Amino acid sequence: MSLISALTEMLGGMLAEYAIQKKWSKVKIFIVTSAFFFAASLVNLLVFEHGIAVFLAISGAAILGVGLGIFFVLAIYVHEKTKK
């Protein structure tokens, strides 16, 4: 489980750097990071959860994906404002 989390963290950092480098719009950053973290956390939770907890895994992954999408948009916004 920690391997999947570490891989997700590494890929998320690479995605954030790529988004800054290519000057993506805030909406595109939010959609891509939310979808990426939703998929990664859903795989992580579905591998280790079974039975009735599947619904909780899907809803938890959705909440985590949206939360991290908002976090990355805010982090890139702060990075752009403090760089100037």
Low-confidence segments, given as residue ranges, are: none
**Number of separate strands:** 0
Strand content: under 5%
Categorize the overall geometry.
Answer: elongated
Radius of gyration: 14 Å
**Proportion of helical residues:** over 70%
Number of helices: 3
Q: Structural class of the secondary elements?
A: mainly alpha
Mean pLDDT: 78
Distance between the termini: 39 Å
Major sheet attributes:
none
How do the SSEs run, as a string of H and E? HHH
Characterise the protein shown here.
The chain is mostly helical and 84 residues long. 89% of the residues lie in helices and 0% in strands. The chain contains three helices and no strands. The chain has helices at 2-22, 26-48, 53-83. Helix 2 runs antiparallel to helix 3. The model has no long low-confidence stretch (mean pLDDT 78).
Summarize, please:
This protein has 3 helices and no strands.
Helix and strand layout, with pairings?
Layout: H1 2-22, H2 26-48, H3 53-83
Helix pairs in contact: 1-2, 2-3
Annotation keywords:
mainly alpha; 0% strand; 89% helix; elongated; 84 residues
